[in-house]
Design goal:
The chain is of the alpha/beta class. The protein folds into two domains: 135 residues, Sandwich (Immunoglobulin-like), CATH 2.60.40; 341 residues, TIM Barrel, CATH 3.20.20.80. It has 13 helices and 23 strands. A hairpin with a 2-residue loop joins strand 4 and strand 5. The longest helix has 17 residues. It starts with 9 loop residues before the first helix and ends with a strand.
């Protein structure tokens, strides 16, 4: 894996990349470089404030969390190496949210039909109200390691109620049925999850959200743990959870999230309405979480118009997405696709949080950020990881999106997003991320005359050649020409340091 070191290229970058000009005005640069694209920022036009970028621990942490053998390249254990790549913001991509699955117990009972045994999950409960906190120890290790490395936001989510509370005694719905838990069991379901939450909060885990329902519109009669709910039923589930949550002072900083619709179209409005049109729930929910599967730009835009018209104070979070395409991919192709969906969700839905599904995977699918070989206990950080990092490592919690526009129509193809915020050193900085999927290198200049004055510039690139590598670190002069290499995702950071 390439080291991402910046200090050594300061002088070399100035010599080799041609950033010194007698006249640095944008007009002069544009005259010299007719093919140069200028990007202009407007900090007075402000959008959402980012809360987090993250990933989920399904369906890998329950076994990868036990991989304590030494990783050949660094001397760390394999599990530590994976955690560093996901959550450390200097070595890895600095994710700040982690979704932990509160299992329903199918791994204990072995009941149901599962595509893969890893898609089963243990339950902490050994009898009603009796818990063994040593269970699911590998997954718990990963959650706590993520927190140690900088995760600020843990989401506890349930795919199914515990098996003892379901109608058929399984963590899957019987074929042809539309429910698997009776209303009289909603309270016990809430008690179980809140007991888990209270335990982890007591151990210092920053649990911020509890999500009891996951993709309620699907049937979930095979494959993995899951539970179907009709829109008319979910308000009572959330009411039971809210009542239990509010009875526990130890969970005063925790909120409910949902409804975790699998897409932003079809029944997404019905599930959201069931929560926000409920007078009790409406006062609690200031965010709505949904997934971006099978949702095109028009569907997202329509949902956003609806939420703005009816619930303008409610923020949106995108809590699960992967490409849903068979076949492994370690190239820039799937990294580009991830970046495209991420940018679309940032700019069309104004999401304040974005979560990839999943962090680690065995391959055969375009889902994980890191591929692993289970038999050999080895890992492969792929381009999806680093392309995601072009956003997650630099757009930190509290950064706000501002308007950015290009000097030509082709600038839109770069899918620019810009954010401003305060870095760890207390300095103001601007982060611009550009995607160049073309087969030609391009040149850009930044017009930051709208009250934005910066003195330093760093540029990080993910491409076939580089893994989120710092390729320039130098004094910034307005009008400096910046090379955006072909087939790359590039992050430009301007600061006052």
């Amino acid at each position: 894996m390439m080291k991402r070191m910046c200090a050594a290229i300061i002088c070399l970058g100035a010599l080799l990349m041609g950033c010194s000009y007698n006249d640095n005005s944008k007009e002069n640069i544009m005259n010299q470089r007719e093919d140069t694209i200028a990007f202009t920022f407007n900090p007075s036009v402000q959008y959402q404030i980012i809360e987090s970028f993250g990933t989920s621990g399904c369906w890998w942490s329950q076994y990868v969390g036990g991989w304590d053998k030494e990783y050949k390249d660094t001397g760390r254990s394999v599990r530590d190496e994976i955690a560093m790549l996901l959550f450390d913001k200097e070595y890895g991509i600095g994710l700040t949210c982690y979704r932990y699955n509160v299992g329903a117990g199918s791994a204990d009972s072995k009941r149901g039909t599962y595509w893969d045994t890893h898609r089963r999950a243990e339950s902490f409960e050994t009898a009603p109200g009796v818990y063994d906190w040593n269970k699911d120890d590998n997954a718990v290790w990963f959650m706590k390691k993520a927190v140690e490395l900088g995760v600020q936001e843990v989401v506890l989510f349930s795919n199914s109620p515990p098996e003892r509370l379901t109608i058929n005694g399984m963590a899957q719905v019987s074929a042809g049925e539309k429910k698997n838990i009776l209303p009289e069991n909603y309270d016990d379901f809430a008690v179980y999850v809140m007991d888990v939450a209270e335990h982890f909060v007591g151990e210092g885990v920053p649990v911020k959200f509890i999500s009891p329902i996951n993709e309620p519109q699907w049937d979930w009669f095979e494959g993995q743990e899951g539970c179907h709910y009709e829109p008319s039923k979910i308000a009572k589930v959330y009411r039971a959870f809210l009542e239990e949550l509010e009875s526990r002072p130890a969970l005063s900083g925790v909120s409910l999230s949902g409804p975790e619709s699998g897409e932003w179209k079809e029944d997404a409005v019905a599930y959201t309405s069931a929560i926000l049109n409920d007078t009790v729930l409406n006062s609690h929910f200031d965010t709505i979480d949904n997934h971006s599967y099978w949702s095109d730009t028009a569907s997202k835009a329509a949902y956003k118009r609806w939420i703005d018209a009816n619930f303008p104070n409610v923020k949106l979070r995108m809590s699960e997405w992967c490409e849903m395409v068979n076949g492994s991919d370690v190239t820039m192709d799937s990294a580009f696709h991830l970046a495209e969906v991420l940018v679309e969700d940032l700019t069309v839905l104004d999401v304040v949080s974005w979560q990839n599904w999943v962090g680690v995977a065995p391959g055969g699918y375009r889902d994980g950020l890191i591929y692993i070989n289970e038999e050999q206990k080895t890992l492969n950080p792929i381009k999806r990881l680093w392309g995601y990092g072009n956003y997650s490592r630099f757009i930190r919690p509290g950064y706000q999106r501002i308007a950015v526009s290009g000097s030509s129509e082709e600038a839109d193809a770069f899918r620019p997003v810009a954010f401003v915020g305060t870095n760890d050193n207390g300095g103001e900085e601007l982060v611009l991320v550009l995607i160049n999927e073309g087969n030609e290198n391009r040149k850009v200049v930044l017009d930051n005359q709208n009250g934005l004055e910066y003195t330093n510039m760093r540029i990080y690139e993910t491409s076939e050649e580089y893994d989120l590598r710092c390729i320039r670190n130098e004094v910034y002069n307005q009008g400096s020409v910046i090379d955006i290499n072909k087939q790359s995702i590039t992050t430009i950071i301007l600061s006052k340091e």
